[in-house]
Amino acid sequence: xxxxxxxxxxxxxxxxxxxxxxxxxxxxxxxxxxxxxxxxxxxxxxxxxxxxxxxxxxxxxxxxxxxxxxxxxxxxxxxxxxxxxxxxxxxxxxxxxxxxxxxxxxxxxxxxxxxxxxxxxxxxxxxxxxxxxxxxxxxxxxxxxxxxxxxxxxxxxxxxxxxxxxxxxxxxxxxxxxxxxxxxxxxxxxxxxxxxxxxxxxxxxxxxxxxxxxxxxxxxxxxxxxxxxxxxxxxxxxxxxxxxxxxxxxxxxxxxxxxxxxxxxxxxxxxxxxxxxxxxxxxxxxxxxxxxxxxxxxxxxxxxxxxxxxxxxxxxxxxxxxxxx
Length: 325
Description:
Blueprint: E1 2-4, E2 9-11, H1 12-16, H2 23-30, E3 34-36, H3 44-59, E4 66-70, H4 82-88, E5 96-99, H5 105-119, E6 124-132, H6 142-147, E7 150-158, E8 168-175, E9 183-184, E10 206-207, H7 209-231, E11 240-243, H8 248-257, H9 269-272, H10 279-290, E12 298-305, E13 309-316, E14 323-324
Parallel strand pairs: 1-14, 4-5, 4-6, 11-12
Antiparallel strand pairs: 1-7, 2-3, 6-7, 8-13, 9-10, 12-13
C-alpha cells in the first residue's frame, strides 16, 4: 500500500474565517476538525502518482499488469487520467483506465482487480483511489466545504492461494440510479454541456445530507453483512471495520448496527475529512501504521457513494508496511 496527502492543512477555524460556521458546529455534525487540500496546480493525477509509487515500493516491485484509478475528479474530462499516471510511474504500455463510482470507487476497483486476476488476465494489479474534491466544491457552501478533503491511496494486488494472508474473501456491489440526485454535479456533462450557460449552483458538487445519511447507513450495513456471509464469517469474528470515512455519525451508526465496538472501527476523518475514493485505502493504511490493524485480522470494508453506489468487501490483512509519500 501507498498513500499521499497534500501538505496544506485547512482547519475548521480556517473555514470559519470566510464561512458562516464554527469549529464546534462542524465537529458536532461531522466529527471533522481538519482536512488536507491541494494547492493550485496540483491535480488528482499528481496525488495518484505519489500513492502508486508508494504502493509499488511497499510491494517490493515496480511491476504491474494493469492500473485502475478510482476517481470522480480526473485531471481532464477527456482523456482518462489512469494512462498518464501509468506512464509517469514507468508502466507505459500497461492497460490503464479510470473507474467512476464516487465514494464506492475503491471497492468497485477492488472487485474489478480481483476479476482480472481470477480470470488470469492479470497477475498483479495496481489499484488507486484518488480525489481532489476541493476543486469541485462551492466555495460558499459551508456544508460541503467542511466535509471534504483531498488525498490518494493505492494498493498492489496479486494472485495468491486460498487461506493466504491478504486473501480477498468476498466482495459485493450494488447501485440504484433512482438516487442519482442525492450526490451530484448537476451541470457540465452531456445533459447540460459545458457550452451551455452554467448556473452558479449547477457547476459545483451538491449533496442532500439527510437522505444520504439514511441510505448510506442502510446500504453499508447490508453490504458489510453480505460480504461477511460470502467470506463465511460471523460479524462477531470481524477484527476491524473500515467504513468509508463520510461522517462520524454514519461510521458510528454502521458500527452499532453491526454490533462492532468503537475500538474495532477505523476513524481518520477527524484529520482528513471525506476523501471520497481515497477514503478506504487511507483509513486502511492509517490503521495498519498505527498497529490497530495487524496481520491476520479479519477486515471488513464498506462504502456508499453517488450514483447511488455501494459495496462491501471482506479480507484478511497481510503483513505489509504502507509507504506514505
